[in-house]
Every structure is written in structure tokens, then in C-alpha cells.
Structure to design on (239 residues):
């Protein structure tokens, strides 16, 4: 099945370039040139991925992202911004974007990031085959946290937790490497699949999101420990 990508971009030249390259790569593409239309398209078209410009007429990209996440629409979002501004990047991630790209960007870079996000989303959405079901689904049970990768579900006791695809992928990687200290650069490489040139703030923001969901007190985490000067470690709570 062909993946559908929604491009929300008001600069015609950039929208046309993205549309052309995505179609050449075999994707179905729908477009919107303002935030309000983009929000409506995201809801009605049910795309597999959204490329969302930050500065848009009628409704900016931050508001579109916020609205979608409030509606529990977890479609992966890559934010596009002309600003090389740390505040904009971090705020976008905090509102639920999975990634960001700063203009100008090359078509090759766009394709690499789109493929990386869709690859993970496809794995998350794949139903189990009969053999997998017979063997029993893979799961993690640590303290009161129960995670089911094949169903893209996590529970704290009986409460279903809400994650974006990238947050869930990060959680799984931490679980798979329980009790190991992981540097921010390791996490960038393993979860985001490309070099962020030392911009490790994206890791910290996603870790903060995870802690808000799974920790009883995010300021005194029991699951995800900060190892000062190194990175993070996922461990079983001691009490």
C-alpha cells in the first residue's frame, strides 16, 4: 500500500519541490497552503505522515500540531521551519512533533527523514501473523509499567498511556537496553537514525515527555535515571 503524505506549506516553490520529490519516490501526496486547511486535511485524509511548516497563515504550525495531539491524532509530524531558533524547535517537540527540519534543506535529506519515520510507523502498525501469535506477543513488565510493542500500547497499572510514534520508539529502545547507560548521541543515532550534529536537546525533550507519562514524580524519576555527564539509564524501580 502506498503511503500518503500531507504537505502543509504556504511557500509555493517549496511545496511544489516537496510534492515532486515525494511523488518521484512513490508516495501519494496531498497538500494544503494554510494551517486551517492543513488541520482539516490531516483529519479527513488520514495521512501516514505530515510535513508541517511552522509559519503558516490562518493557523500556524504549532497550533496545528497542538490541535492534532489534543484530538488524539498521533500521525507522525515533521516540522519545517525557516528559523534556526532553539525555542521554536523545542516548543514544536513539546507540542508533539516527532522531528523538525530547518530550511533550506535538500530533497535527499527530506527523503531520508521521511523514510526513517515511516519505517518505524510501519513496524508499529504491522499486525502479528499467526506464528507470532502462537509464540505469544513480546511485552515488557517493569514495576507497574506494562509495554506491548506489537500493539503500540503501554499501561501504567491499568491506565493506557498516550505516546507519539517517536516517543514510543524511544521507550522501546530504553527498555531493550535496560540497566545500560546510553549517551544522548547513542539515542540520537539509534532512535532518530541520523546525525543531529550535537543537537541533543531533542533527546532531553522526549525523555521529559516519557517521564511525564510513566513516572509518579517526573522530578524524582524511578524508571529513567539521568546519569550526569553521560546520558540516561532505564532501570527497575527499587520500591
Amino acid at each position: 500500500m502506498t503511503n500518503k503524505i500531507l504537505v502543509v506549506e504556504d511557500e509555493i516553490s517549496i511545496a511544489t519541490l516537496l510534492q515532486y520529490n515525494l511523488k518521484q519516490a512513490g508516495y501519494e501526496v496531498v497538500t494544503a497552503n494554510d494551517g486551517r486547511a492543513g488541520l482539516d486535511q490531516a483529519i479527513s485524509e488520514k495521512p501516514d505522515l505530515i510535513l508541517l511548516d511552522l509559519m503558516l497563515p490562518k493557523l500556524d504550525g504549532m497550533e496545528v500540531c497542538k490541535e492534532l495531539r489534543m484530538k488524539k491524532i498521533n500521525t507522525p509530524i515533521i516540522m519545517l521551519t525557516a528559523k534556526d531558533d532553539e525555542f521554536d524547535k523545542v516548543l514544536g517537540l513539546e507540542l508533539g512533533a516527532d522531528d523538525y527540519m530547518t530550511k533550506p534543506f535538500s530533497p535527499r535529506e527530506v527523503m531520508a527523514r521521511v523514510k526513517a519515520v515511516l519505517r518505524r510507523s510501519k513496524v508499529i502498525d504491522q499486525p502479528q501473523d499467526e506464528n507470532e501469535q502462537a509464540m505469544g506477543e513480546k511485552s515488557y513488565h517493569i514495576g507497574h509499567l506494562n509495554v506491548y510493542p506489537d500493539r503500540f500500547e503501554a499501561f501504567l497499572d491499568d491506565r493506557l498511556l498516550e505516546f507519539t510514534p517517536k516517543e514510543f520508539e524511544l521507550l522501546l529502545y530504553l527498555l531493550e537496553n535496560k540497566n545500560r547507560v546510553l549517551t544522548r548521541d547513542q539515542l540520537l543515532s539509534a532512535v532518530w537514525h541520523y546525525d543531529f550534529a550535537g543537537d541533543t536537546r531533542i533527546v532531553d525533550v522526549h525523555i521529559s515527555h516519557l517521564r511525564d507519562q510513566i513516572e509518579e514524580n517526573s522530578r524524582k524519576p524511578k524508571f529513567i535515571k539521568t546519569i550526569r555527564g553521560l546520558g540516561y539509564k532505564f532501570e527497575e524501580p527499587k520500591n
Notes: Residues 123-135 have pLDDT under 50 and may be disordered.
